Amino acid sequence: KYLVIEADEYNKSFHHYFPQIAVVTNIDAEHLDTYKNLKGVVAGFARYFKNVKKGGTLVLNGKDKELRVLGARFLKSKKINVVFYNQGRAKKFPLLIPGTHNQENAEGAATAARFLGIGDKAIEKVCKSYQGAWRRMELLSQNLKVKSQIYSDYAHHPTEIKATLAALRGKFPRKRIVCVFEPHQSDRLIRLFDAFKTAFKDADKVVLLPTYKVSGREEIVSDQKKDSFALAQEVGRRKRQTFYAQTFGDAIKLVKF
Fold this sequence. Notes:
alpha/beta
């Protein structure tokens, strides 16, 4: 009955979608190889919002500044419904996964579900059984003998890294957190270098790998002053337990150390 998709803003691909309901969690300085700056990202989302069908609904995170401003513009048009979630004291959803951002995401999903006539009992039942998405704080393995757990997460933007590490810190307040990070795409690392420097504060130890090069998106980008090794040096100014690993094998040794 319903088709639910994750719309990707890279290369303006989400401009090809014409949804009945659009849930938007935040607008951030991301995919700047496409949009150049935050203003360009906002313009890209404004274009996407125009694709929402007449009488349809925008479900927007009320704590995101850019969404509040952009949502207010569309609220005046009265062609579509604009609903803000995550305002004031939010309901706590019975999730199996930790993190404030996951609670906020659940509230956004619940808001959209209610517009489809889905009741709170059904929403709560789903939240109780939801175990998370692939490569989003995904538990890969655990060693009960030494009480260690290994998680995989695709967080590649400073905002995402902060949210993921904060969620793990909330779940394991007294545990040692070791973060192994492989930067994704040179362009992103260079443009957001200053934001990356402060993204790892909730980790006790940070191991940085060389940047993962994305095919077809690296040919014009090069800045040795803002590569992964340079980031390790900058993070190390704030966090003594910061290391650069040339290979995955080196990273494993540093994790064990």
